[in-house]
Betaine aldehyde dehydrogenase (Pseudomonas wadenswilerensis), 496 residues
Amino acid sequence: MTLEQTLPICVAGTWRLGGGERYATRYPATGEPVAWLNAASLEDVEDAVQGAHQAFLNSGWAQRKPHERATVLYRIAELIRQRSEELAQLQRQDNGKPINETRALVASAAGTFQFFAAACETLEETITPSRGDFVSMSVYEPMGVVAAITPWNSPIASEAQKVAPALAAGNAVVIKPAEITPLLALQLAQICEEAGLPKGLVSVLPGKGSLLGDALTQHPLIKRVSFTGGTKTGKHIAHIAADKMMPVSLELGGKSPTIVLDDADLDHAVAGVLYGIFSSSGEACIAGSRLFVARALYAPFMQRLVAGAARLRLGDPADESTQMGPLISAAHRESVERYVALGLAEGGRLLLGGQRPSGGIYDQGYFYPPTILEGLGNNQQTCQEEIFGPVLVALPFDSEAELIEQANDSLYALAAGIWSRDYKRAWALGRKIQAGTVWINTYKQFSISTPFGGWRDSGLGREKGRLGILQYMEQKSLYWGMNEQPLAWAGAEARP
Ligand code: NDP
């Protein structure tokens, strides 16, 4: 297929041109088109949901034994692995992440399918302790058609986290990827088909979320929405879900504190803080974007941190040695720049960055350097709002009591990091920090076997973990009567 040809989208097992506007996806490192496609239309949404509903009812997928569904999921994992380099290169072009990072995301997507295949075939239903003349059981059943709505920052990994457990549970899935990064979701649908998943169980609808995502969420046949994205959008989805009495899981934004105590191992802490905020160019919900450093250590720590950040390699995502690629789009870079300007207007001082780089590839793509601000208070806007870019605000602290108050003083509560040589101290502090995930002497490490999600404005529900599959299932209680005699209450009246 040539670049100018329009890519088909996947509507209930049929590959066809979307009914919406034609648009190009662009490589953030150069601004050049990667692929052309037509967005899905509202008719495509309707066809995808109706087709998924029919596939759910008639394909027999939901009725297959768990180990049979698992076999297909293992095959999906295997096909992702076979194509891993091609997928990693495509994702690099789709969202501009460095190739080493996209390879890791593709590997994680394969691992996710493998994990949920195993979760599916080992999921146990329970016989509950009987309290009468009956046997009582608790079993799980699929929900029907679920919607997976994903953002642009980690395509394929985000989709896999929703699609794998949803399919494992026996459902059909309609994916709405971010308008600007639809290519990996389309590849995933193809792989599902090749792996032998019945037609219609997966659809992919690229295009604007305000139109398509909204229509999907409102659709009466959509029985659950699993959403990852911004808090504002998440709240909007939650309102619609409330009206439908529909369960949702919402993985939303963050402004995560990273805490360096006065007894931290500095080599580990500097490397961890740099990785926590600047990897993925800061376009990560869990970015450690608020740095709290014990005052006694503040000056030497910041000196090492700034020197380390200045050495990070910002550049061509195709280059194996690149650590930071461009931001996703021109508009997003402008938003990051506005936050840096706001930080300065609020009284912050720049320790590093804050200026677009220039020359060579920097003039073509949406590059922005590691940027560090100090001199701000935790209650200021720059310290409270998610920037979603490579911008770190550094704050010294004097006492642990003050630290805990400030670290928890945020609408968000997604993640946190603690650096200390004293494990008891770090443990005690970790239990007091309000966050869905706390990393101690490490940061931004992930495991599909460990549940993930946020508190407060960072979201609702948990993804991942062996029991993550239950998010996509309804629980049902079954009672079997074992009485020798009719039920006593009307037993006498029932006799002829
Ligand atoms: P958005 O909320 O703008 O978009 C996320 C997805 O929702 C996109 O597919 C978008 O479509 C779609 N969408 C937009 N409007 C609606 C609507 N009214 N109804 C249904 N769907 C809609 O977030 P961003 O794309 O800006 O992603 C960045 C955000 O995601 C950050 O806040 C980040 O913290 C968060 N995030 C959270 C993670 C977590 O696990 N907690 C992980 C990764 C990111 P489209 O873009 O096509 O318009």
